[in-house]
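Moderator note: this is an archived Q&A kept for reference. The question asked for a predicted structure of one protein chain; the sequence and the answer are reproduced below.
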Amino acid sequence: MNKHDPKRAEIFLAHQEIIDDIVINEEIPSKILNELWSGDWAIYHVYETVLVMLQQTADPLIAERAADFDDVRALLLRLWYGEKTKGFLSCRNL
């Protein structure tokens, strides 16, 4: 993938890092188990909290990172609802 489309590979790696985020991976199940949130609300709200923090910065690199978090949230919610995706980048039109 790197050889054929470095931009997509870069986005894929950014998305993978977000999915592997320890804090998010602990926070979502915690909200479901301890606060009895539904799974989709936990996904939406935990990612929204991160997005709000990232969007409050003037740094363009961090703003781009916010778009990655939004993409991952959208993908996770589609998966939660059982919707099919066209590929790993179906969140963003590239």
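Archived answer notes: The radius of gyration is 14 Å.
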